[in-house]
Amino acid sequence: MIVSARAPTKVTLFGEHAVVYGYPAIVLSIPEYVVVEGVRSDKFLLRSGPVYLNKLSIIIGENAIHVARDTESDLVRYFSYVLEAVRSLGLNGLEISIKSRLPVGAGLGTSAAVTVGTVAVASKIAEMNLTKKEIAKIAWEVEKKVQGKASPMDTFASALGGALYISKAGSDWNIRRLSVENLPLVIGVFRKRKTTGELVKMVNEKLKEIKVIERVLETIGEITNEALKALENKDLALLGELMNINHGLLEALGLTNKEVACAIHSLKQAGALGAKMSGAGYGGAVIALGDDLDSLVSVMRSCGAEKVLKITSLSNGVEY
Ligand code: MEV
């Protein structure tokens, strides 16, 4: 019997990278899904779906991963840990197929969605009845192993859905669902030049070498808290300004590239209330808040976005 799960992707509205160091972040789960299908089997087999994932052809054997192409892909590395997660759920084998219309590592949490979807499917096959929160926790453990450091942001957004405010008190993370139905946003997906792991490491190295970086991360945390109030007050003009300031600090951390910088500049000229990179950076996602979403869509396209999404509602988390 085929068991399937649909796991949503996400955009980070505020706080990426700073969240890795315990500062707060705001994340939106978007209705752009990764579909994972699984069948009980005595071996591990991953079949890739159409479009972007077609680049991959992976057979996961007992101890090895054989990759036909795209060996550096985030997805390949993720799967070695997904395999561990699946095994930790007590399964001896699983045949999995993945369908996604988004490129892997685009900054939309695709890899986290793949992980969440796979854990959901595996847990159903193992008849474990895991809750969305339990799935999120297992998927987060996987991310921590892959990235070295990871916040619960991407995995919890995919598993739980909605708009989430993520903050840390002591060693505990708090995840609060916000009463945000929707925000007028356009998302542009640009070719990503570096992996999330590499970029998280780069920021970590800068933090060790340059004293002021700690203050930059702390300020991103303060911006996120101001943005939380702006969201609660539905003050879109202030929210947009705060997005611009957050982007400036991510740029200061060295996380943008030419395409992203060009898009941000053009989006503001076209009347966006705010624009920022979203996710790990160096390509990947750019988000823009505004009234005239169609003109922002055209700007994203003319700046070279490989995919453009208009957000009209949020997702409700993993369906399984
Ligand atoms: C990646 O989408 C977001 C980062 O903040 C990493 C993380 O939160 O784990 C860069």
TrEMBL record:
<dbReference type="InterPro" id="IPR036554">
    <property type="entry name" value="GHMP_kinase_C_sf"/>
</dbReference>
<comment type="similarity">
    <text>Belongs to the GHMP kinase family. Mevalonate kinase subfamily.</text>
</comment>
<dbReference type="Pfam" id="PF00288">
    <property type="entry name" value="GHMP_kinases_N"/>
</dbReference>
<keyword id="KW-0808">Transferase</keyword>
<comment type="subunit">
    <text>Homodimer.</text>
</comment>
<dbReference type="GO" id="GO:0005829">
    <property type="term" value="C:cytosol"/>
</dbReference>
<dbReference type="GO" id="GO:0005524">
    <property type="term" value="F:ATP binding"/>
</dbReference>
<dbReference type="InterPro" id="IPR013750">
    <property type="entry name" value="GHMP_kinase_C_dom"/>
</dbReference>
<dbReference type="InterPro" id="IPR014721">
    <property type="entry name" value="Ribsml_uS5_D2-typ_fold_subgr"/>
</dbReference>
<keyword id="KW-0460">Magnesium</keyword>
<comment type="pathway">
    <text>Isoprenoid biosynthesis; isopentenyl diphosphate biosynthesis via mevalonate pathway; isopentenyl diphosphate from (R)-mevalonate: step 1/3.</text>
</comment>
<dbReference type="InterPro" id="IPR022937">
    <property type="entry name" value="Mevalonate_kinase_arc"/>
</dbReference>
<dbReference type="InterPro" id="IPR020568">
    <property type="entry name" value="Ribosomal_Su5_D2-typ_SF"/>
</dbReference>
<dbReference type="GO" id="GO:0004496">
    <property type="term" value="F:mevalonate kinase activity"/>
</dbReference>
<keyword id="KW-0963">Cytoplasm</keyword>
<keyword id="KW-0067">ATP-binding</keyword>
<keyword id="KW-0443">Lipid metabolism</keyword>
<dbReference type="InterPro" id="IPR006205">
    <property type="entry name" value="Mev_gal_kin"/>
</dbReference>
<comment type="function">
    <text>Catalyzes the phosphorylation of (R)-mevalonate (MVA) to (R)-mevalonate 5-phosphate (MVAP). Functions in the mevalonate (MVA) pathway leading to isopentenyl diphosphate (IPP), a key precursor for the biosynthesis of isoprenoid compounds such as archaeal membrane lipids.</text>
</comment>
<dbReference type="GO" id="GO:0019287">
    <property type="term" value="P:isopentenyl diphosphate biosynthetic process, mevalonate pathway"/>
</dbReference>
<feature type="domain" description="GHMP kinase C-terminal">
    <location>
        <begin position="227"/>
        <end position="300"/>
    </location>
</feature>
<keyword id="KW-0414">Isoprene biosynthesis</keyword>
<keyword id="KW-0547">Nucleotide-binding</keyword>
<keyword id="KW-0444">Lipid biosynthesis</keyword>
<dbReference type="InterPro" id="IPR006204">
    <property type="entry name" value="GHMP_kinase_N_dom"/>
</dbReference>
<dbReference type="Pfam" id="PF08544">
    <property type="entry name" value="GHMP_kinases_C"/>
</dbReference>
<keyword id="KW-0418">Kinase</keyword>
<feature type="domain" description="GHMP kinase N-terminal">
    <location>
        <begin position="81"/>
        <end position="162"/>
    </location>
</feature>
<dbReference type="GO" id="GO:0000287">
    <property type="term" value="F:magnesium ion binding"/>
</dbReference>
<feature type="active site" description="Proton acceptor">
    <location>
        <position position="154"/>
    </location>
</feature>
<protein>
    <recommendedName>
        <fullName>Mevalonate kinase</fullName>
        <ecNumber>2.7.1.36</ecNumber>
    </recommendedName>
</protein>
